[in-house]
């Protein structure tokens, strides 16, 4: 395969090979999708914003011992990452009831979940990324028992850190999606991204249920000011990271 050839293109990123088979280049796109790509659009500078936020958060997580695929960010919308085999699971951690959890269970929006809920979804667009039971997950051989236990433990560790980090940003972490992959040593690494695309974030100082939204729900629900919300999240992240360093 030629150096810097396109390896894969997803909804939010393009992955390219590099001269090192263990390293890939992720190019973050401005494209926006929702409802399994049934709704499409673009968000100005989304790629740069999400890459910047993800890079900062991956570095913060590495500093507390969470292993990620992040290496560095050679350009504002690009990230060099370790090559991993992505496990076909979307891992969702929920701290507050919102979105599909409310729709499927009848829980009122804003219900605090104690302890946090960790859910697994089958990463399969054709099937609509269905919610999995553990038995179905193992029936489909999507991961081993040990890998699922490791991922669950890591997801809760990441959640603990992110709750505190977003609180320092004046933001409430409602829920978020993670993806994990296996490196060449079969080690589980946090992969993909952590951004307003993958997190449900509410402005902690705002009581209005629409104005408080600072994530992709603004795009999903046609709330407007999507770019402004993403920019504000980045501004707060950079402020907290600078204060920490």
Number of helices: 6
Return residue spans where pLDDT drops below 50 for at least 5 consecutive residues: none
Radius of gyration: 17 Å
Along the chain, the helix and strand elements come as EEEEEHEEEEHEEHHEEEHH
Which class best fits the helix and strand makeup? alpha+beta
- Hey, roughly how much beta strand do the residues contain? 25-35%
- What is the β-strand count? 14
Largest sheet: 7 strands, antiparallel
Number of domains: 2
Q: What is the CATH topology of the largest domain?
A: D-amino Acid Aminotransferase, Chain A, domain 1
Q: Rough shape?
A: globular
Determine the N-to-C terminus distance: 40 Å
Kindly state the percentage of residues in helix: 25-40%
Q: Calculate the mean pLDDT score and round it.
A: 95
CATH architecture of the largest domain: 2-Layer Sandwich
CATH class of the largest domain: Alpha Beta
Instruction: Let me know the CATH homologous superfamily of the largest domain.
Output: ATP-grasp fold, B domain
GO biological process, one term: 'de novo' IMP biosynthetic process
InterPro entries: SAICAR_synt/ADE2_N, SAICAR_synt_PurC, SAICAR_synth, SAICAR_synthetase, SAICAR_synthetase_CS
Catalytic activity: 5-amino-1-(5-phospho-D-ribosyl)imidazole-4-carboxylate + L-aspartate + ATP = (2S)-2-[5-amino-1-(5-phospho-beta-D-ribosyl)imidazole-4-carboxamido]succinate + ADP + phosphate + 2 H(+)
Domain SAICAR synthetase/ADE2 N-terminal: 6-236
């Amino acid at each position: 395969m030629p150096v810097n050839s396109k390896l894969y293109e997803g909804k939010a990123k393009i992955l390219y090979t590099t001269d090192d088979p263990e390293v890939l280049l992720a190019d973050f796109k401005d494209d926006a999708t929702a409802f399994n790509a049934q709704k499409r659009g673009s968000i100005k500078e989304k790629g740069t914003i999400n890459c910047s936020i993800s890079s900062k958060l991956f570095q913060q997580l590495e500093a507390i011992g969470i292993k990620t695929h992040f290496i560095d960010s050679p350009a504002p919308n690009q990230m060099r990452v370790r090559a991993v085999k992505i496990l076909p699971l979307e891992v969702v951690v929920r701290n507050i009831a919102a979105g599909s959890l409310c729709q499927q269970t009848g829980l009122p929006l804003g219900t605090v979940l104690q302890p946090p809920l960790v859910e697994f979804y089958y990463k399969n667009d054709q099937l609509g990324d269905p919610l999995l039971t553990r038995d179905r997950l193992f029936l489909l051989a999507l991961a081993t028992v040990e890998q699922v236990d490791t991922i669950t433990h890591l997801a809760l560790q990441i959640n603990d850190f992110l709750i505190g980090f977003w609180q320092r940003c004046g933001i409430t972490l409602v829920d978020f999606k993670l993806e994990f992959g296996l490196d060449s040593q079969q080690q589980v690494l946090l992969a993909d991204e952590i951004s307003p695309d993958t997190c449900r974030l509410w402005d902690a100082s705002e009581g209005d249920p629409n104005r408080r939204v600072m994530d992709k729900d603004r795009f999903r629900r046609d709330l407007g000011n999507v770019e402004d919300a993403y920019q504000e999240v980045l501004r707060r992240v950079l402020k907290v990271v600078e204060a920490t360093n």
